[in-house]
Amino acid sequence: MKSESKPQKTRWHRLLGRLFRELLVPTGILVYTDVPVMGEPPEADILLLRKKRSRWTEEQRSRLPDGVRDTRATHILIEFKYTESVNRKVLAQTLCYDYLYKGGQKLGDHDVRTFLASSKTPRASTLEKFGWYQTDRPGVYKSHNPLAESVTLILLNELADTPHNAWIKCFASRRREKKSAFETLMDKRFSSLSSQLQWFLEGLLHYWFTMGGEHMDIEITPDDVMKIGKKWQQAVLSGISPKDRLAGLAPKDRLAGLAPKDRLAGLELKDILAEFTQEEIEAYLKKLKKKQRK
């Protein structure tokens, strides 16, 4: 009899990577997952963010967490741990990735900044053992230990409750912090996000809070999360009247895709002309007469 195969583990860094891809690529930041740390395999379960410019733009900073948004490095490595706690093995692994990536890409310390992002909050004794101390940013730690000073620790549960931290705090281990992050993101600005980003956030929200995903012993992929979010959004929209559906959209978004004549449908001439000054109307009529004479 064949033994049952063990369920595949969820590659949590890929889910965070998909969120970053939908969130950051439109702003000009390159996002990679499963990055080769050397010229040859193996690949590492880390994220790589690449800046095209020496400084972050304001739009980019609005989507990056504390610590990352403050670095001037152009290559940002992120070792993300969702189920595993910060320990000696995790730190050694992160330091190895940092060392091998710099050597393989022939980059200096000023070019690369490596972050260890942890969903779980380690004990105070663990932080003390590795020389971690909190910076002026809540949840962002650096180390007094010379061997670990190249790695910045980010504790998702402790990051400040600000909009730019909310994106990554969707992966915090504490339910309270995770819920607060989603509430921040699901505000009136949610409708301005791309459909792909909306679906992914909706998928994460329902996977964790409706489906009890944290307790499910199955692999979940970024595409699975996207499908969940799309189905939930379609189900919600199918029960909303067209008037209510348009209420959350900006005027330009409501009219997107409509032909000019369709945009003006239902409006009387006096209502249309009321939006223009007499000078603008006269100037347009003169221009129209010249065009008709040709």
From TrEMBL:
This is Uncharacterized protein.
